[in-house]
Amino acid sequence: MPFGVRALRVEDLTLIGLAAMKSSTADGVAAELAAAVGRTGAPRAIVSDDGADLNGAVARFRRTHPGTAHVHDAAHRGANILKNRWGKDARWAAFVGGMTRTAPRIRQTPEAYLLPPMPRTKARFMNVGPLLRFAGRVLGLPGESPAGSRTRERYGWLEEYRGAVAGWRDEYEVVQAAVRRIRTDGVERGSVAAVEAEWAGMGLAAGGDVAARTRAMVREAGALAGPEETPVGSTEVLESAFGKLKRVEGSQAGGGFTGLALSLGAMMSGREEGAVREALEAVPRKEAEGWARRLFGPTIQWFRGLFLRGEPVPDPG
Length: 317
Hints:
It contains 14 helices and two strands; from the N terminus they run αβαβαααααααααααα.
């Protein structure tokens, strides 16, 4: 592992198993974990987000493999810390609501460049950084400048949140500093001290509730490591792999997974372009399509093709 040098990249991974499920359940995931043991032996650690299906499956797996640690992804845990802190804050809700109301008022105007970067509806506390940086930029513009004057016309209401935005940005950076450290260095027993040193270097206050919860998160993860161990503490490289897959799929990604999902294995392990080309030339197309059908079954594109050709469409269920 390149700990201390850089975060994991897709080429650092090896695909152990790929399973298609109509719905991900603890039973289904547990069965796939058991199958993976037959290929690799029991793992030292399983890293996952906080999904209920994954948590249930890993808990079940660890009953028969107690030597396997379950490490939770730092970014998801950090987002939950912010959610618990800000989700009940009426001022945070009003701030996001103000941004939401402002956006349509300027979308079709010359000031459309001032559109705020709104968080995604799913896992929104994982991507609030751009919104907070945008608000800080707006509040930092001098009112007498042309840009500042136009901006204040649209965002004058933001002035009453000046102190709150500064506080939210500090709390966000406290969490992100820990996530960055774990992403690059993994987790170990000394992770808390390393994170606290990073906070001090950034001039961040470490005495608040968010810092205390973040410190507890890092300590809990580090406690899973043995004296000479440094487990991975982030699943972001897996999300990068799926992002790369979506780029390969292009417009097909809008209709769900396709047979191109099988290319995940080729994206990993740092395979050279020549090796991938040789494999593509060696495997007949019909064989590859048959493999995809066996793994995925009928796809949305297949059903759509039948519909557009006027052929009978079976029950997708």
